Amino acid sequence: MPNRLADEQSPYLLQHANNPVDWYPWGDAAFEAARASGQPIFLSIGYATCHWCHVMERESFESHGVAKVLNDHFIAIKVDREERPDVDRVYMTFVQATTGSGGWPMSVWLTPDLQPFFGGTYYPPTSQWGRPGFVDVLTEINRAWRDDRLNVVKSAAEIVTRLQQLARGQDDRRIPDAAVLTSTFQQFAQTFDARRGGFGDAPKFPRPSELLFLLREYARTGETAAREMVVQTLRSMALGGMRDHLGGGFHRYSVDGNWRVPHFEKMLYDQAQLVLAYLEASQASDDPFFAQVAEDTLQYVQRDMTDAGGGFYSAEDADSIPPGQEHVPGTHKMEGAFYIWGQDEVRAALGEDSLVFEGRYGVLPNGNAPFDPQQEFVNKNLLHTAQSIADLARASGKTPVDIAEILLRARTVLFAVRNRRPRPQLDDKVLTAWNGLMIAAFARAARVINGADPVGVANGDSASRYLASAVSAATFIKRVMWDEASGRLLRRYRAGDAAIEGYAEDYAYLILGVLELFQATGRAEWLAWARTLQARQDALFWDGDRGGWFSTTGADPSVLLRMKEDYDGAEPSPSSVSALNTWTLAHLTGEASYSERSAAALASFGGRLSDQGRAVPLMAAALSASVAGSEQVVIVGRRDAVDTQTMWRAANTRYRPFTVMVLVDPAEQAALAIHMRWVGEMRMIDDQATAYVCRDFACAAPTTDPSVFQ
Hints:
By secondary structure, the protein is an alpha+beta fold. Helix content is 48%, strand content 10%.
């Protein structure tokens, strides 16, 4: 019989809907049950594509014996961290503070008043690997609650008091300067892996915020070492096993230091941020390889991660049923099963093309271990770039063009074969925040790839298709997730249901995407919406005392802490993104209030930037922009005219991270001037597309010559 989770929309909660555990979703019914029974709460937090969440479910939550212990002695609550990052953030802070580490699945025990007193992550069903068994932990916590409840409750209250002090943080406001940027660059240089790319040793995570900071420092100072760290890291990631060489896109992270062995889940936020990093690297290095990787990733998102309504799905799982075992009773999903190959499978599919493909992607007769330390996939291969096309051409006597054609043909064939395998589960919820990041990526690509035209029609070129994806997603979010009358932004959509009040990250990431979309189109409606969203975010989340943006409104009494993120990790902090957003708005509109807010956010993170700049690289990128100053480029011309498109392509070719870019069609100029008064008097010269290149709103002489951008 399904439990209460069967009525939820979260794919993660629905995965547990048939567990024998008497799960509650987070909410008043669960809290009332705990208060009425006097039982402690067992809180389990995870997400739909989490491998170890699946393992703990299979081992413990599907077990009737374990379920009986949980049901008899605890109120069990299941939370999707992607739907409720506010809840996750509170208890992750507790787990990290008390154990020194964190992760998912996260297991936390609470008093009926939601105060935590014990926590950890994954627990095996019985004691092993130095970890206590889950039932043993449940038994001991039940004993402590039964025999020593007053001390447990007292301890929990003291813990919450300390967490509240931690959440407030230190009031260490400083005005950061360029010296902070130099020290932050040096922090990255000291930990850079010069042989393999990336920072530090295994595991290696894609952290695009740090790459975007380094590229901006290269642009600001000319420091080529900053650019080379980015180029080497992105190239290593693209050539290694973390990239899906058949279907496009990137897996979550590399478990080894060589970028060979991925954790196989695919997250939307990774695709979006990596596309931005690859596009900027392509411009900064003048190497088309990086743009090709970005396009490959965008095409994956368009094909496999796009909802019929235009929004983008959240993730694909790491686990799936191994090929050929779909109907074998008792078969469990295995991590990576969808992505790996036996040499015999490759040869059967490719015939005479197989030898070239095997050489290119490191396919070996006995598999290319050591990627399988637990020997789950004996004699299987994980694709990675093992040889260059030039080396393969020399070894085979073929031309590089011949080799490239063979590889393209082989990829098409194996992609079709792979699509007949059981697919990993798709997490098909649409999250506003992650959609904002993806809108930004598509919109930026529409400017950078092939110097996109600003028309935005499906005329056959990839840039226009990318722009169409950005417009479609933004239109979907505005129509389904935004209520203009109430100023209410929702976080999650799935199966026709939009719900959950948006958090600061939903506003910040969406504003980022909408601002990129405005710069790609020049349409006043997008700038107007970005300004409305920013005003609403400020009203709900701005810290008027210390600066920066809180993650939540503080209105939900079930969320014990009102926290302010101060770490740019897999997802950047809302304050870092918003510092950049308000900088962009300042240099689009000319309104001082935006630059004042951005400066206040930088000051609020001044101590963090000075002492641990590496922890907040996107905030450091905002500081880099502030120190470098701004450039405004305005192209005045008819949107669909050839000379306008030529000028637009020229303006978007070079790397200009401190430049805001605007297309002004004379027919739409009045609407745009409502928000950008400084462009109201700009005119075409001799009825030709005209460029105005300005620095801090002081403009050079207008020109009709595209070579001004060379």
